[in-house]
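We close this part of the discussion by returning to an individual protein. The sequence in question and its structure tokens are set out directly beneath this paragraph:
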Amino acid sequence: MDGSPSDPGQAPGSVSELLDRLDGLGATLPKRLGQCADYLRHNIHLVAVSTVADLSAGAGVQPSAFMRFCQALGFSGFSEMQALFRAEYRELRPDYAERLSQLRERGEEGPEWLAASFAEAGHKSLVSLMNGLDGAKLDEACRLLAAAGTIHLVGLRRAFAIVSTMGYMLDKMQVPTVIHRTSGQIESDHAIRPGDALFAVSFTPFSQETLQLAARTAERDIPVVALSDTADCPLREAAKVLLIAREVDVGAFRVPTAAMTLATSLAVAVGGMRKDRLTIRSNGSKME
């Protein structure tokens, strides 16, 4: 069993101080806590928006080991450490102008370097997706959507690319689909009827319009399938199934490689299920 280093004293007052403390601990950390340290360094953007279960799974340790890791850094537990990251979240996720500036300062703005970096980040995102994919949840999501009379899609800002592509694919497979854009702040709940289903996509820091539509739909006992980048997403309260797709970024820019892959898989599977059902019904009608 892994032990814990001696009490480091007061908790770090900033993320940079936390990283300095990690440098100081170095090889003194037991094996499991060392795994936690390595994972945190490479996924620092996830700490503010993930659960201890998510992070411990990513590090390949038990949640109890990740809790000991937090305590080894001087925190009372995971919640205190996460609060530090959340307080500095805007610093960790600067606006687009600042992100470009950071890339230029590092001399990392050439198109060839960017293409290689985004390709590598996409590969890492896909590996992470497959390592953490819950096949049973994905199957349940497919069945809920395939059984719907009409599939309603909602995803704003960064998530809109996901639902618009999924809507295009479903339409090509002749699956009745509606994309909700909340244009002009007009609520479109009336279009979602019993027997339908809603697929809602929202990433940190989350779209309130998407969260509200999902909540109102769930209150009417209409199934909601959700896609986000954290298991701690507010959509979990409304969703019958919550799928997770996390992205590795490049200079704080993210390409939705994992999310698009998951949504595409979902669309193709749903289209296939509906086609099989129509074939069975058609064959049954011919036999009567």
Remarks:
- The two ends are 67 Å apart (CA to CA).
- The chain has a mean pLDDT of 83.
